[in-house]
Amino acid sequence: MGLLDDRVVLVNGGTQGVGAAVARAAVREGAVVAVSGRRPEPGEALVAELTAAGGLAGYVRADLANAAQAKGAVAEVVAAYGRIDCLVNAAGLTDRGTLLDTTPELFDAHVAVNLRGPFFAMQAAVADMVARGAPGTIVNVITSSAHGGQPFLAPYVAAKAGLIGLTRNAAHAHRFDRVRINGLNIGWTATEGEDVTQRTFHGAGDDWRERAAARLPMGRLGRPEEIADVVVLLLSERSGVVTGSVIDWDQNVLGGLD
Fold first, then answer.
1. N or C: which end of the chain has fewer CB within 10 A?
2. What positions carry a catalytic annotation?
3. By three-state DSSP, how is residue 91 classified?
4. What pTM value is reported for the model?
């Protein structure tokens, strides 16, 4: 038996990177998986990959920055499969901005993707769980930068720190509904999106991963599939009664000084 047998899972931001890795891991563990994203091409390609391997999967076109679409993605899953058991919010915007140069438009974009979208997706998912009187699980993929982060991540940090607070607040509010809500503060991870970010904002070349790895304690960046395994564990009954936890999934130690 898989950890997620007979579970219906929605992965927001599931068409690439960490989200796609979570979708693959959830299917491997027996779940029916829906992935949401703005672009149909990678979403449909991932669904084709998952179904070709014998899994049950579907794609929902949705932009998490749009609150109605964030809620609508959950509604589509419930309409298609009769319920939603698990939700993963893995979408993220990492465009750079400091306290001094961030525009209101950039700030609002970060809040829309990194905080408001997850809020309303959680609202819709928990409403379905509560209406059915059924337990459920939610995992928010956050960031270790939410503890403070780099100066060029000011609006990102502000929004993701809000997601930490939301994770704990919602977990507390719905613990007696048996809805468990947890988060992962992930560190530097080798994803397609991070490659674009490094090249776009930092002028990185083809060797940026190797150069970054040389500066890290474990000699490498984190891998999406490693994060996916932890997400699946938190979604499953194997994680027991834990709720309201925000785990630092990183190779640097918060508060540690040299």
1. C
2. 156
3. coil
4. 0.94
Distance CA 26, CA 8 (A): 10
Q: Give the Cα separation of 176 and 25 in Å (integer).
A: 28
Name the residue among 36, 41, 46 with its Cα closest to residue 14.
Answer: 36
* Sheet (strand 56-61) strand order: 56-61, 32-37, 8-12, 86-89, 136-141, 179-186, 246-249
pLDDT digits (tens, 9 = 90+) for 176-193: 999 999 999 998 887 887
Burial class (CB in 10 A: 0-12, 13-18, 19+), 46: buried
Tokens at residue 101, please? 């140069």
Residues 43-58: pLDDT tens digits? 999 999 999 999 999 9
Single-letter amino acid code for the residue at 46: L
Distance, CA of 187 to chain centre: 13
